[in-house]
Amino acid sequence: MSCPPRRGFAIILAIAMMALASATIVVLTRQLGFEVTRTRLAVTDAQLRQLLVAGGRDAVAHAREWGKEAGVSDWQIDLPQPLKTQGATLMLGSRPVSPTMAEIRMDAQIEDRKISQTLHFSHAAGGWAPTDAELGR
Amino acid sequence: MKHSRTNSGPPIAHGFVMVEMLVVIGMLAAVGLVAGQLFRVTMQVQRESAWQQIHESQLDQSLRQLRTDVWRASSIEVRRSDAVRLNMSNGQEIDWEAGSSLVRKSLALAEDQSEQRWNDLGVTLAFTPHAAGIVVEVSRGRESEGRMILISQPMLLSGRSL
Question: Which of A21, A27, A119 minimises the CB distance to B49?
Fold first, then answer.
C-alpha cells in the first residue's frame, strides 16, 4: 500500500513545529549556560576578594614589623587545605616607594582567575599605617 | 469518503464528505493555533533572553566599578538611599547616584571619563551605610533581588569590623 500524497503537508508542519521548539530550547540552554558561568565566576571572585581581605590583615601585621625603613620581601600565605585543593594561592610583595611611603602588592589566584591589590602605607610617628588600597585585575 | 460502485470492480473515491472536511479543518485550526503560540513564545524568549543578557552585563560592569571605588574609599557618606559619596585618601571624591539610571561622577580631572552612566540595568539600587563599607540592595520593581556588602579596604584595615 503506497502513502497518500497528502502526508507531505503534515510532515512539513511537524518539521516546522520541531524547528520552533528546538530554537526555544537552544535559546533557553544558552541563557542557562550564561547564568551558570556568571554564577560560578561570581563565587570565585568573592573567594578571591576574601583572600585579599586576609592578605590585607597579613600585610598590616607585616608592616608593623618594619622599622624606619620599609623592607623589600616576597612571601606567600599558607592557605587552608580546601582552598589549596582548588589551586588557590596568595602571594605578597613589599617595596619602599619613598622614605615615608611603601606599598605591598598581593596577588590572589584560584584556578585561572586572578585578582590583585596594592596597599599603600605611610610612615608616621606611630609607625607604618595603611592609607590607600587599589584593586586591580 | 463518498464511493460509487461500478458494475465490475472496487468502489472509486469521488471526493470528501462534509464530516471529513470539518475534521480536517478542525485539526488544521488546532495545529495552526499551537504553531502560532509556539512561534510567539519562541520570539518572546529570544527577545527577552537578549535583553536579559544586556541588563546583566550592564549590572555586572557597573557593580564591578562601584565595588572597585568602594574598595579604595577611605570614608563613605550615604547622602540618600539612592546617592552615596566616596572619599578617597588622595582627596578625590566620587558620587554614585542610582535613579532611573546609575550614574558615577568623579571629581578628579585626571580621569578620562568624569561621568559614566548605565541606563539598561533593569533593576534599582539602594545604598545603606555599613561599618566597613556600604550595603547595596538590588530590587526589581517592588521585589527585592538581594543585597550585597561592598567593603572598603582602608576602613576595614583601620579596625572597623565587617
Answer: A27
